[in-house]
Each structure stands twice: as structure tokens, then as C-alpha cells.
Amino acid sequence: MSIVNKARQAYNKLFPAPVLKDFPNENLPWIDQKNPDIEGFVKRFPKALHLPYDLTEKLHFWKENGYVILENVISEDLIDAYLADVEELIEKHKEYDITIRIDRPEYNKHPVMKVRDVPREIIEGQYIKVMDFHNASVAGKKLMLHKAIVSFLEAIFNEKVVAMQSLTFLYGSQQETHQDFPYVVPQVPSHLAASWIALEDVKPGSGELHYYVGSHKIPKFNWGNGIFFNGESTKNPTDFGKYLSAECERLGLEKKTLLLKKGDVLIWHAALAHGGEPILDDNLTRKSYVCHYSSALGYFRHRHDLVNEPVRHNMNGADVFADPKLTSYENSFKRGENVN
């Protein structure tokens, strides 16, 4: 355990945080507050006139439903550059310390590993997430901080956008229904959103993403020690998934599955209940790229170094931090340099 984490634990024992039942009102994003003036905001938002969609309509939809879909906003060239980087990582995996998560029974004791220590057939299979490959890939950074995504998130937060992390999938995740905020916690927890970028056309039976429309408004789940999942929680992710599914069903919320085309983007609220459908056809991939975001207020230190000022990469007015633990790999996959 690092000195920083030990100090944090000691502090928390002396001054325990209150058990939260919801996000504190004082730092909610403006769009999550009661009766936000969307029309007034759009009139004052400098980028509103230059977007390829009606921002007022999108913000009302977000407020009501907890997500938006941006169609055909990312070029195939940029996606193909990123996929080529991923393929190179797989082919030369023994050379890299890039981290992956393996959600397979035989890896239960050590689900997070370096890609160099995992057989290629596992890396290319189901239940795999490549973690934070954007640190190494220029194309990954450009996807993550694409202007279409950044512009909408900047409106949501009404602040500078900061990207926190990324997950790359070759197959459907098959995850239980969940919300992001109990697991991905920026320094201001309510300042959190995510994007799901289709790296290929999504086909039925491939383990499509599912989500419950309007589920970002349901009461927060109590893990036994508040709304965040940690080592002191008395409930588990299966309890969480059962609660979400039952609550969404009780409220009559519509369950949708996502069939996006390559270059389409789903952006969702941190509290939108979503998950992965079972893969019905093992021959079908579902290549996708998931990124989590906060604001400059909500995430101002890299999670691997809470003390020092991070090294920042800026694109389209947004930041992503270099990983202080993997500095030798930063931007080492360069295919994306001349692609937009």
C-alpha cells in the first residue's frame, strides 16, 4: 500500500466521512439541479452555434432520459487507426506493461494483470477489458477527447472537461446491470459521465449494451456504508444489480439495447443503469471504447498520484492526464498523429 493511501486511511479513521444517501446538492452539475434554465444556458454557451445538433434539444433529452446519442460524429480513419494500435498491442503483448482486466473464473484471484503476462488467446477472448490504452495511443486520446464528445460534456458540466480513464472491449462485456458512480469516483463524485464509442457496427446477439431510460433519477443504492462501493461495503455488485433491475421494473422504465453504427457515440449520466446482454453468437465481436469523464473541479489529480500536479495533454479544450506510473509508454503508438 502506498504512503498516500495509508495516510488517507488513517485520516478517514480519525475523521470518517458521513454516510451519503445521494450526491451533495452544493456541487451538483447545473443540469442535475432542480428546474435548470436550459434555454438560458444555451444562449450563453459559446459553442452552441457551432454544434452539428440542437444543443437545447439534447440537454432536455439528457435531463429527462440520462443519455444522448450522437450519430456518425467520429471518422472511420480515426477509429481504424485506434484498432490498428489495439491489434499491435495484442500481437506484441509480451513487450508491454499495459494493464488488462480479466473477468473469468480462473483469474478471480488476480483479475487485473499486465498484458505481457497473459496468453494471447485470453487477451483476444471474451471478458477482457484493456485499461487506459489511451495513455499509449495518440488515436485513443483523439477518440477520448473528440470535439463532439467534449463539447457536449462541457455543456453538461459547464466547466472544462477532464478525461479520467478508458476501457477497450473486443467483445460484449456481459456485465450485470450497474451504475458507474459507485466504482468510478472523481474528487467530486457527481461530476462524472461516460461515452461509449462504436468501433464497429453493433450486431444483434453480440452482447449489446443495455440501459434503462430515465434510471439516473432512481434512489441511490445503499451498499451498507453509503452510495459508493469499497472495502467496507456490506453489499456486493450482485445485490446492486438486483436492486437496479427491480427498481427500474417497479417504475416501469423502458429497457433498451444499443445497436449503434461505427462512429456513433452514446454519452450517459453517471447514474444511468446499464449493463451488457449475454453474447448469443460467439463469432460476433462488439468492438467498443468506453471513456469516463469529470470536470476540472471534479478531477484535478491523477488517481495514481493524488499529491503532485499531473502532466496534462490538451485536445479540443479538454485535458487527459499522463499516467505517472507508465511514463515510458505515453503516446508511443503514433498512428493517430495525422488522423482526425
Walk me through the structure.
The protein has 340 residues and is an alpha+beta fold. The chain has one domain: Jelly Rolls, CATH 2.60.120.620. The protein is 24% helix and 18% strand. The protein contains 8 helices and 13 strands. The strands form 2 sheets. Strands 1, 2, 3, 4, 5, 6, 9, 11, 12 and 13 form a 10-stranded mixed β-sheet that branches. Helix 4 (76-91) packs across helix 6. It is globular and about 55 Å long. Residues 1-8 have low confidence and may be disordered. This is Phytanoyl-CoA dioxygenase. It comes from Larkinella rosea. One of its GO terms (molecular function) is 2-oxoglutarate-dependent dioxygenase activity.
- Quote the CATH topology: Jelly Rolls
**Number of E-type strands:** 13
Output the structural class: alpha+beta
The CATH level-2 architecture is identified as Sandwich
Poorly predicted tracts of residues: 1-8
Helix content: 10-25%
Sheet of most strands: 10 strands, mixed
How much of the sequence is in beta strands?
15-25%
Query: How far is the N terminus from the C terminus?
Result: 41 Å
The pLDDT mean sits at 93
Q: Which shape, going by the Cα principal axes?
A: globular
Distinct helical segment count: 8
Number of domains: 1
CATH homologous superfamily descriptor? q2cbj1_9rhob like domain
- Can you tell me the CATH class? Mainly Beta
* Radius of gyration of CA atoms, rounded to a whole number: 19 Å
- Written as H for each helix and E for each strand, in order along the chain, the element string is HHHEHEEHEHHEEEHEEEEEE
